[in-house]
Amino acid sequence: MSLCILAAGKTVTLAVTAFTLSWIHSVEKTHWQEDWKVTPSGLQIVEARIKGSGAGMEPPEGSVLRNGWWVYAPNVALQRRLMLAASGATGEGWTLCTVQGCRELGKAPGDTIVLEPCGSEGSSQSR
User: Taking phi first (over 0 means left), then psi (-120 to 50 degrees means alpha), and beta for anything else, what does residue 39 get?
Assistant: First the structure.
């Protein structure tokens, strides 16, 4: 399986089956993390973590406080793609980490990033 990252008219392909997406909430300045699996049908969230709580980001029922993070398993359907749009309010974008390392995505305001499983030939499915 591969993950396609579409940004600024270019596609980057990562040969991975899982990734962690992390960012800072633009209002509360609190860290968030999500673990995702890449499947042929879409992206499946496995676990999410919030470093605190605040406006519109209360940990959901069933969350467990573990090492300072509220940890939970979101009940979210398989996603065909994730679209990330940078607000510029945090001074940074998202960090995407895989077994191959980490990279920052969408730091500039208005940057739009699309994450999706790659097609069978390693290209974006949305093309």
Answer: beta
